[in-house]
Design goal:
Blueprint lengths: L5 E3 L4 H9 L5 E2 L14 H20 L6 E11 L2 E3 L5 H11 L3 E11 L4 E12 L4 H8 L21 E5 L2 H5 L3 H10 L5 H8 L1
Parallel strand pairs: 1-2, 1-3
Antiparallel strand pairs: 3-4, 3-5, 5-6, 6-7
Length: 202
């Protein structure tokens, strides 16, 4: 299948880099949707709904081009059942990261692929274990500028990676796009990574 028919419903540089890493050709188109959490909505339901809605809104815009396939993704940092947003200021960053300090939290990522007629999704759960953090460390981290646009107030792929003692699950899912599950899901729709294409040629 011609990979220029694949759309990533995101402008995230991290998701773009991860999808490129798999060898796909694609274009990026951000999805403008309401990302509010419904009252009493479970985290798993929320991330799946977000991934599906992001993919669906882009494929709807592409109609009547029915050979367009869209990949949507959503990632949430969750602590004690609560979805952690981006910090609004230093005080908020300190509150968030102190809550994660020396504890385990979870990162939940959902991916969804649709062509407007059918849709499939996967959910990936990763446990992340933080070291003990001091207020001085958190303050210094805030002033690097990295936490400001990160849900959960840290980026595992950046400076914030030094806070992570270990993970159980998918590192790339924590960054924003699980490599294994994405390649498997896209293959169901006829899109194959560079490695999968090589295997087919033998």
């Amino acid at each position: 299948m011609n990979n220029n028919k694949l759309v990533l419903a995101s402008q995230s540089p991290r998701r773009k880099a991860l999808l490129s890493q798999l060898g796909y050709e694609f274009i990026c188109q951000p999805a403008d949707i309401d990302e509010s959490v419904f009252e009493d909505e479970l985290v798993l339901n929320y991330v799946v709904r977000m991934a599906k809605e992001k993919a669906q809104v882009i494929v709807d815009m592409a109609k009547p081009c029915l050979d367009r396939f869209v990949l949507g993704a959503d990632t949430c940092v969750v602590n004690a059942g609560e979805i952690l947003a981006k910090p609004v200021d230093l005080a908020d960053c300190i509150t968030i990261l102190q809550a994660l300090s020396a504890k385990k939290h979870q990162v939940v990522t959902a991916i969804a692929v649709t062509n407007g007629e059918s849709i499939s999704h996967e959910v990936i759960l990763t446990d992340v274990y933080f070291k003990m953090l001091t207020i001085a460390e958190i303050t210094a981290y805030w002033h690097t500028g990295e936490p400001q646009d990160k849900a959960g107030a840290y980026g595992i792929q950046g400076i914030g990676g030094q806070f992570v003692r270990r993970i159980e699950g998918s590192y790339s899912a924590v960054v924003g796009l699980p490599l294994y599950e994405t390649s498997q899901l896209l293959a169901k729709f006829g899109f194959f990574s560079a490695i999968q294409q090589t295997k087919k040629s033998y």
